[in-house]
């Protein structure tokens, strides 16, 4: 198979500038990045380096200032149910039950109520919330709400999952359990994933590719291909290779965080 057939999405020299004149912010320098089909790409980088901007361009929520983002080699012109997005917090419909939140997408894209209901049941089961289908979001913990958000994104059967710090608001134990869960779901469903995190461990545990970004304006500083995404053993985090890569990425991010601090102090 030709190499290009394996690419699910890519950024071709994508840059982003917000605003104009002296107040303009150059969020991203031209970025070229390929996301392999079935890949799990983690973006890490200092706060404000443009990670969410990049993800939002792929989601179709933002347009690039120059360059183009493509999925299946077609330019992205707006949001599309083939791309599922999960944010750091909530974004659930508070007035709908958990079940109806998850069934919403399939209903909106033409499933019958019975089909949409079956789809919702299936994904709630997958994220371990079958027993909470009739509850409302406010009756759930933050971690459970995030799992509903993931089930809701999966229910549309997206080809590409775009996750912007989905676990950032969770406690460490819940986060680790959900990391194992998302790894299992990714391995079972073979989705393509773009995932933003500030946690180096999370990136190493989940990703087939880690993209380290520079301080703003964001560029790609390094790209690594850890070998832990296919492992289901939570003990991989203690392996020598894991610890070595963690130290490498930590060093890179520290340099960039210091650069970002200097930049903020100067502005
Ligand atoms: N809608 C907007 N209008 C103006 N500036 C924006 C907008 N969105 C983002 N920016 C600016 O673009 C830069 C990149 O922001 P972005 O949210 O992509 O960073 P990030 O890497 O996701 O940061 P964090 O890790 O804190 O979430 C920041 O300087 C931010 O202030
Ligand atoms: Mg962000």
Note down, in words, how this protein is organized.
The chain has 267 residues and is an alpha/beta fold. The protein folds into 2 domains: 3-82 and 172-266, P-loop containing nucleotide triphosphate hydrolases (Rossmann fold, 3-Layer(aba) Sandwich), CATH 3.40.50; 90-157, no CATH class. The chain contains 7 helices and 10 strands. Strand 7, helix 5 (172-189) and strand 8 form a beta-alpha-beta unit. The structure holds adenosine-5'-triphosphate and magnesium ion. The site of magnesium ion has 3 residues, from helix 1.
Query: In CATH terms, what is the fold-level topology of the largest domain?
Result: Rossmann fold
Number of helices: 7
What is the terminal separation in angstroms?
Answer: 50 Å
How large, in whole angstroms, is the Cα Rg?
19 Å
In the predicted model, the low-confidence regions spanning at least 5 consecutive residues are none
Shape: globular
What percent of residues adopt helix (DSSP H or I)?
A: 25-40%
Strand order of the largest sheet: 6-7-8-3-9-10
In short:
With 267 residues, this protein is of the alpha/beta class. Helices cover 37% and strands 23% of the residues.
Which key phrases capture this entry?
alpha/beta, 10 strands, 37% helix, binds adenosine-5'-triphosphate, 267 residues, Rossmann fold, globular, binds magnesium ion, six-stranded mixed β-sheet, four-stranded antiparallel β-sheet
Secondary structure: elements and pairs:
Layout: E1 7-18, E2 25-36, E3 40-44, H1 51-59, E4 66-71, E5 74-75, E6 83-86, H2 98-108, H3 113-126, H4 142-155, E7 160-164, H5 172-189, E8 192-196, H6 200-206, E9 209-213, E10 220-224, H7 240-266
Parallel strand pairs: 3-8, 3-9, 6-7, 7-8
Antiparallel strand pairs: 1-2, 1-4, 4-5, 9-10
Bound molecules: adenosine-5'-triphosphate and magnesium ion (MG).
């Amino acid at each position: 198979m030709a190499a290009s057939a394996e690419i699910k999405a890519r950024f071709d020299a994508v840059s982003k500038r917000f605003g104009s004149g002296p107040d303009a912010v150059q969020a991203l320098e031209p970025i070229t990045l390929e996301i392999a089909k079935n890949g799990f790409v983690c973006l890490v980088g200092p706060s404000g380096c443009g990670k969410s901007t990049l993800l939002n361009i792929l989601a179709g929520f933002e347009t690039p200032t120059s360059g183009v983002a493509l999925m299946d080699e077609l330019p992205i012109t707006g949001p599309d149910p083939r791309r599922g997005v999960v944010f750091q917090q909530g974004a659930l419909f508070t007035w709908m039950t958990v079940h109806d939140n998850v069934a919403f997408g399939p209903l909106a894209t033409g499933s019958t109520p019975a089909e949409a209901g079956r789809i919702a049941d299936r994904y709630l089961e997958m994220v371990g919330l079958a027993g909470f289908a009739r509850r409302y979001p406010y009756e759930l913990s933050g971690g459970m709400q995030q799992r509903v958000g993931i089930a809701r994104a999966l229910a549309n059967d997206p080809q590409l999952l775009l996750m912007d710090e989905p676990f950032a608001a969770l406690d460490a134990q819940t986060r680790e359990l959900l990391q194992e869960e998302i790894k299992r779901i990714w391995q079972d469903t073979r989705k393509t994933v773009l995932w933003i995190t500030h946690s180096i461990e999370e990136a190493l545990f989940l990703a087939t590719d880690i993209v380290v970004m520079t301080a703003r304006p964001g560029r790609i500083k390094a790209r690594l291909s850890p070998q832990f995404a296919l492992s289901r053993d939570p003990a991989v985090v203690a392996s020598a290779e894991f610890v070595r890569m963690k130290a490498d990425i930590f060093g890179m991010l520290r340099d960039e965080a210091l650069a970002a601090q200097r930049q903020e102090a100067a502005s």
